[in-house]
Amino acid sequence: MRPVADGEKLFLWREVLILMDQSLLEPEPNSDQLLSYHSPVAEKSHCDTDTGRKSVTCDVCGKAFKGKSKMKEHHRTHTGEKPFACETCGKVFSQSCKLKVHMRTHTGEKPYLCNTCGKRFSDVSAFKKHTATHTGEKLYTCTTCGKSFSQSGSLKVHMRTHTGEKPYLCNTCGKRYSRISGLRNHMSIHTGEKPYVCNTCGKRFSDTSVLKRHAAIHKGEKPYSCETCGNGFSRKDNLLLHMRIHTGDKPYICNTCGKRFSDLPAFKSHTAIHTGEKPYSCPTCGKSFSYSKTLKVHMSSHTGERPYLCNTCGKRFSVPTQLKRHIRTHKVEKLYSCETCGKNFRQNHSLTVHMRTHTGEKPYLCNTCGKRFSHSAAFKRHKATHADEKLCSCNICGNTFSQSSSLNDHIRIHTANSDP
């Protein structure tokens, strides 16, 4: 350990004086002093809870503190008082040290230097988290499951998975979260805020994790490979979902008809057939949908947005599934083959529908008359007959029909009568 220089001694002594008497006004240490002392005691000792003998107790929660000034700072967490305001942006803080750290976002100051890689940080907590990545040291262990962590804060958050504690409350809808990051991401649902922008395509996101997953699409990164067939994926959850093709695992079961599904979106799509629930409404035309993604696709019919581009022919599409289907038209091979009759299909969905001709499966049930259907299109046409929907009109006599095929049959009556 290197000897402490005179300038550093002066810096540390000033911090001791500040802790002894909050009213003392000492000049700020310069960046050179902070950078030369890479384990920043000043910020830690000023902001962290004191250790050792504690003589002052909070009258609200009973927590003990070493001095009145520390207890006073803590008491603001109960009262909500934030007397320290940023002169640049107006943001307020309960502690002066937090304001001091915040000011660095405006000044760009990063006084904490990592000796290993040279990276700089504006606050001590981020600095400590970073240094732990070099040392790999994990001092804090969970007494319940034995998992270890490099920071006490990470252990505290982890413990909530065992206790079920969710201290972060959304004041708008009452939903609770175990992490503050979860609450922040949730709040964007109410505010509509999407502060994270993709530098490649300009698409905006409400949280960084979704942006990172999206960015991988542009980079073409597929770090997760299937050990069975070698297919690559940009996300681990997509790989796990893909693996069910090989394992045959279908963990989602419909309580109404007993049908099982390998992925959650397909399961939700299926259950909507039984419930008929459509909670998502288009603000432009009022049409309702069972799923938010279906509404999103529908909205493109109003906006005309087609963000998905085919690199082969330049054709654009409003949804990625349409683009995927289109791309297959450029390929000669037919990927999906029926094991019963050998017929080939370009799309897995087409094969699934075709298989019903062999199995006799009719998953679409009419709740009015009990009739079943193997295709959703036929099911929808049938339902219209009960609803007495007259969608197609004859331009000769004005008669209306629920199906275009019925209208075509009707028109032949007029054309037959007009023949000489």
Task: Provide the fold topology.
Layout: H1 6-20, H2 31-36, H3 41-47, E1 56-57, E2 64-65, H4 68-79, E3 84-85, E4 92-93, H5 96-107, E5 112-113, E6 120-121, H6 124-135, E7 140-141, E8 148-149, H7 152-163, E9 168-169, E10 176-177, H8 180-191, E11 196-197, E12 204-205, H9 208-219, E13 224-225, E14 232-233, H10 236-247, E15 252-253, E16 260-261, H11 264-275, E17 280-281, E18 288-289, H12 292-303, E19 308-309, E20 316-317, H13 320-330, E21 336-337, E22 344-345, H14 348-359, E23 364-365, E24 372-373, H15 376-387, E25 392-393, E26 400-401, H16 404-418
Antiparallel strand pairs: 1-2, 3-4, 5-6, 7-8, 9-10, 11-12, 13-14, 15-16, 17-18, 19-20, 21-22, 23-24, 25-26
Helix pairs in contact: 1-3
